[in-house]
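Hey,
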Amino acid sequence: MNLTTTLMTILSTTLVYAAPLIFTALGGTFSERSGIVNVGLEGMMIVGAFSSSVFTLNFAHTFGDATPWISLLVGGAFGCLFSALHAVATVSFRADHIISGTVLNMMAPALCVFLTRIFYDGKGQTPEIDQGLGTKTIPFLVNIPFFGKVFFTQTSLVAWFAIIVAVICWYILYRTGFGLRLRSVGENPAAADTLGINVYKYRYIGVLISGFLGGLGGAVMAQSITLSFSISTISGQGFMALAAMIFGKWNPLGAMGAAVFFGLAQSLPIIGAYIPGLAGVNSVWFQIAPYLITIIVLVLFLGKSVGPAADGENYIKSK
């Protein structure tokens, strides 16, 4: 295998695994920029993966090739709905953010597996999805010398879409009035309140956007990697996305870059054979690498990366 083909294989596989993490890390960024810690990203991904899988299995014949893409929106919608529980608990009832997110992470797998058993005759997982997102070769761009074949041959379209979304999210947060107000309630909610900004409203919006993008990430996982839903469909990816957000310093572009790095770590069991020096390494090390890298990144960067000043602090509007 020549260098171009090797790089194409590594990049394509990395992007497939990075796409769910990019969406979910972006979701976490919106929530925490508004001042609400969201460790419930894992649960939101689970709900998104489950709902998108059920939708695809039931409507594949109705919507044809468009079904996987529509199912992403369905997963995002249900993730948004599920995140409303976190918003109500933390914003309206001022519950501890970590405890609320942990409850979501415990509730989601139990609820979704229970519903799976009801919908599919007691089975613990859904049937396999026939129409997944898969990989595509992008016309015209593939003709670019060297880079075209490496970046745009049999690549993940949804991953490139996630990268575009990351750029849009950065623009929204740092170049629009909405983004300025959202960040202000995460930095100094009392000062924002005195300027007439509805702190509760923007925190709700931040959490709901987080839920939509988290559900979208779970849907991408189900539609492009596992091609079904089971208890193991989402197994730590939500926490990897949380680590990517911290590693990226709560910046959409930084979170995207970190998510690609974690996507590379997740793809090691597949691409390890193509990387010089790694072909002889036991596959068990590749399987534990993503989780080990997540822990190392959190240990090294959690204390050094400074998040929004009011992140995790409940706000009580003064009379």
